[in-house]
Structure formats: C-alpha cells, structure tokens
Amino acid sequence: MPLPGPEAAIPIGAAASLDDHAMPAFEGAASRRHQRRPVRRIRREAWLHALRHARALAGARTFVQFAGWPRSGHSLIGALIDAHPRAAIAHELDAMGLFHKGVPATQLPALCLANARDFTRAGRYWNGFSYAVPGAPHGPRPQLSVIGDKKGDWATRWSAADPDLATRLALASKLETRWILVTRHPEDNVATMTLRQGRHYDRLRIAARGATSEAIRAAQLDGQIPAAVDDAMITDYQALAAATAALKTRVPAGNWHEIPYERFTAAPEAELERLAAFLGLDPDPAWRDAAARLVSPSGTQSRARLSWTADQRKELAKTIAEYDFLAAYREGT
After folding, report:
1. Is 321 helix (H, G, I), strand (E, B) or coil?
2. Residues 191, 197, 202, 205, CA torsion sign
3. pLDDT tens for residues 125-179?
4. Residue 208's pLDDT is what?
C-alpha cells in the first residue's frame, strides 16, 4: 500500500472547529485534560495579555514552535527550554491552531507567556509527570528573548490543513520564527500512541505518579489498555511524517532544528548547548546542568509493551526509509 499523504493528518470533526479551541485545564498533579473554549473569547484574552505582558515581551527576538508527532518528548524538551532564565514555552496551548483560527501572530507570544505562567503556578504537572526543573526560574522573567509553544503534533496537523501557515506566521510575526522537530524511534511513538487511547493509561500514570510495568500489564490483561499495536496509529504516524516533510519545505533550513530523542537523553548537556545556540540563548552552565539532571536515560522502550505483527513493522520500515529526518532509525545506522 502507498504511504498516506499530508492530507491524512488534517483534523476532522469537532477537532477541526474554527469556532472553539481545546485549551489545557491545569489542575495541579491531576492535570491531563483539555476544555474547549470559544475562539472569540480567546482573541479578547490575547489582546489583554498582549497589553499586560508588553514589558516582559519587549526584548523577545525569537518565536519557537515544535513540529512532528505526539509522544516524542516535546513536553520534556519544552520544559527544559522554559527553565532557561530568558525563555518561556507554553504547554499544550496549540498556538498554530489559534493562528489558523484567526488569533493575530503578534498576540501569540503573549498567550504563550500567560500559559507558561499558569502552568508553573499549577505545579507544572501533566499526565502524571512533573515538568519542573529544580532551581530553575520558571515563571516571570525580566529579560525574555525566546517565547514559543511545544504542541508539535497539532502544529503539524494544522499545517497539513493550511499549507501556507508557517509562511504566513513568519511574515506576520514581529519575531523570527524557528522550528524544532523531535524524532523518536517510530515504533516507540506508535506504541505510546496506542497505549494512550481511551486515556486509562494516563489516569493510571497520574494515580501512580508514573505507572509501573506491573500496573500496565495488569491493565492490559483486564482489557483497559491495549495489548497490541493499533494499525490506525501506524497510519496516523505515517500521515504526520508526510505532513512534517511538507512543512519542512516551507521553513528556511537555518530555522529548522532536528533532535533525535534518544541522542538527547544519551547526552543532554551537549544537546542543550546545541539547542541554546539554535535559539540564540546563552548556554548558561547552571541552566544546562540543572536541566540535564531532569533527563532520564532511555530505559524501557514502549514498543516492548505491545505485540506487533511482521506486517506492522514492515509498514513502519517503509516510512523510515522514506524520510530523511528518520534516517537515524534505519537498520545498520
């Protein structure tokens, strides 16, 4: 079968609505859900935030947006950037969706900053994980230079629906726009996408502050969490890969940065320094070392939690062979 194209990643149904938008509900350690809110109200709030945060944003030079797939490490890497004293990264905002729905590019930084501050006030928890870097200045910053959003999979979906979105953002924004693509082994992406269907996996993680292998296996035996890879998640992964490749062609090469997640977790200090250079941030050793301590070496791979068919692995191998940004996952590399 041919690989799906970018159009297969376009949002459909309620998710495609231009009248409302899924906003994160920060509820302390139980944070995991979104609530849909009218876009017209968000536009008014964006205008107010732009006035309120004008001084904090006066020195901002760069707007950064993640791209790619869900379950790739965006939340972690976004949180580590947010820990820098001159950066703030929104959590679960979906800034590109808001831009697509009519929120002006000039007001996105203020929405991102307000979201990042709300996330910090709520304790920086999401789906059972803490995204707080001990000792880091999450929150108000007197000399902000980088602002952005980590919601990469939805940025990619909206770009599939609106191919000129990245170009229009670059033209309309007062800041230089930069993009970060985080890749992870496709089998791990697909496995985690499968496990999280129905949200029982998330509830389990929140209750246990990080679900154990035993708890996950018990839930699989009870039928509460999938035990086998879902073909639909493979198709979705492939569609997002095609949409990511199309998006990449619309971003200048110097404004696009790729991070294999496994390389990041193996040597976080070096990767954080590369990331700081890309964003124009001072690679402050205190920030780098504090952020690196939050990174755990890649341990149990989620692909091992599910059963696979030979055909499913062949399908993903076709995708890996198709795209240059997945070259690190080809056999023999």
Report:
1. helix
2. negative
3. 998 889 999 988 887 677 899 999 999 999 999 999 999 999 999 999 999 999 9
4. 66
Distance CA 64, CA 61 (A): 10
Tell me if residue 180 falls in helix, strand or coil. strand
Cβ(66)–Cβ(136) below 8 Å: no
Q: Which residues lie closer than 8 Å to 188 by C-beta, 6 or more apart?
A: 71, 301, 302, 303
* DSSP state letters, 104-169: -GGGHHHHHHHHHHHHHHTTSEETTEE---TT---S--TT--EEEE--HHHHHHHHHHSTTHHHHH
CATH number listed for the domain at residues 6-329: 3.40.50
Q: Give CA 77 to chain center in angstroms.
A: 8
Q: Which residue, 79, 72, 71, is CA-closest to 123?
A: 79
Structure tokens at 147: 């602002």
Instruction: Give the span between the Cα atoms of 230 and 67, in whole angstroms.
Output: 23
CA–CA distance, 173 with 250 (Å, rounded to integer) = 16
Cα–Cα dist 250/247, whole Å: 5
Which stretch of DSSP H or E encloses residue 79? Answer: helix 74-82
Residue 209 reports pLDDT greater than 70: no
pLDDT digits (tens, 9 = 90+) for 233-266: 999 999 999 999 999 999 999 999 999 999 999 9
Q: How far apart are CA 111 and CA 93, in angstroms?
A: 8
Query: By CB neighbour count within 10 A (0-12 exposed, 13-18 middle, 19+ buried), where does 95 fall?
Result: buried
For residue 20, give the DSSP letter. E
pLDDT given for residue 55 in this prediction = 92
Model confidence, pTM: 0.95
Least confident of 176-180, 184-188, 224-228, 270-274: 224-228
Which residues partner with 202 through β-bridges? none
Task: Using alpha carbons only, give the angle 153, 262, 4 rounded to the nearest 5 degrees.
Answer: 40
Question: Which stretches does DSSP call E strand in the chain?
Answer: 20-24, 34-38, 62-67, 87-90, 125-126, 129-130, 146-149, 176-183, 256-260
